[in-house]
Structures are given as structure tokens and as C-alpha cells.
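Curious: why these numbers?
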Amino acid sequence: MKEVSIFIVSDSVGETAQKVISAVMAQFPDVEETNIKRYPFITTEEDLKVILRDALNERAIVVATLVNKDLVQSLADFSSKTGLDYVDYMTPLTKLVQGKTGLTPQEKPGALHKLDQEYFNRVAAIEFAIKYDDGKDPRGFKDSDFVLLGISRTSKTPLSMYLANKSYKVSNLPLIPEVPLPKELDRIPSEKIIGLIGEPERILEIRQSRLQSLGLNGDSKYADLDRIREEVAYSKEVFEALGAHVIQVDDKSIEEAAAIIECVAKK
């Protein structure tokens, strides 16, 4: 089976690389499978090296659209040491233009997207919401327009994605009494923190429905009313400690909850 694995690494959205890859792969109709993984908003060497190690393990080609010269050098050094295959789309042409004009490049990620800022802001916000969904990386909190907090089944992810489609950068974190809060939360202004809460009985119904859809036993602790009441009480304590704006979600649509959050932003 002829297949190719490609990792797209970008300090912006990565759409530039995606378009070129699509054009190139169209020249290889006999390739049966193309596995493409996109890694947007890569701005630190630490994150870059994790991705490069994964690419090496998967024998993937790395396609980079990085404008930061330190990240580009880190990629080149890694490739030199390990034999990783990579293509740097930005640097060669950047150097040629710099040589012709004598001007220094800005090294500003996403500068191209100013051509259609509204569209690309929305794309970037959606990528951001996916990357920082469900507390995957608390480091994203500082770059968020809003950080949504709530126990399981309080609409954190649907609300994050809806707001992302309106170009807001949103991260979210599930609240679990046994799991300590990430320290990054302490540095987030309270006006950016949104607490989502619901009545325990309503959350129980939603969780039971979720378990049934997965073919799982509805008698688990996840769908225990006393446990849910404990989680709700804990979330209220967290919201008060952080000064969060609290929204009761079980009587509101996603659109209504989003409108409330947007009003908070305008205050």
C-alpha cells in the first residue's frame, strides 16, 4: 500500500501549507492514503520538538510555514541530527526577497491573513478552540478571550465552538473535585472567566442520555445524583474564588448563552 504521512507545522493556521500539499498530492494519484496532521499556533521550541519527535517516529514528512527564525533553526538542527525529512516553505523565498530589497522581514505569524481578516480570524479561532478544548493545554488560557469552566455536560465544547465561529478565541476546562485547578487560571482576569452551571437533576438526565447513546451502564458514578450535586457545589466554590461570571445553562440555548457572554465582553 502506497501511503504518505505529512505533518503541517505552523505558527499561524497552517492553511498555506495545506493548499500546496493538496496541489502536490494531486500529482500522485497512485498514492492510496495521505495522512495529514496539522499543528497550528506552534510558538515555542518545546511544542515544536514534541511534534518533530512524533513525526520522526511515524516516518512523516514535516511541512513547515514558520516565520520565527529561531523555530526554523530548531527544525533544521533537529533534521540534521535525526535525518527527519522536512520542507520549509517560508525561509528560502523570504531570504531572496530580503536580499533583493534590503528589508528585514517582520517574522509576524499570519500576516498574509490580513487580506481577509474576518475570515481568517474565524478559522484561527476555530483551530484555537479545538487545540485548547477540554483543558488539553492550560497554557492557552492566557491567549483566550474567554475561559469556560464547568462540570461535565454543561455545554463547554459546543459553546466554545459557537463562539469560535464568531471569531472569539475560547478555551475550556472541565471541573472535577479530585483534580487540582491548573495554576494558569490564577493569572487570568476574572472578566474572562465564565462559569457554566446547571441544575443537578437536569445534568443527570443529560449524562444518562449520553451513557445510553454509548451503550454504557447508566448506573455509574458519572450518572449518580449525589455525585453530581457534589460536583455542582464544587464548581460554585471555584466560580466564587475566581470571580467568574456564572451562566445557568440548562434553560438556555447555545445561542442565548453565547449572547450573554458577548454582553460580558462589551462591559
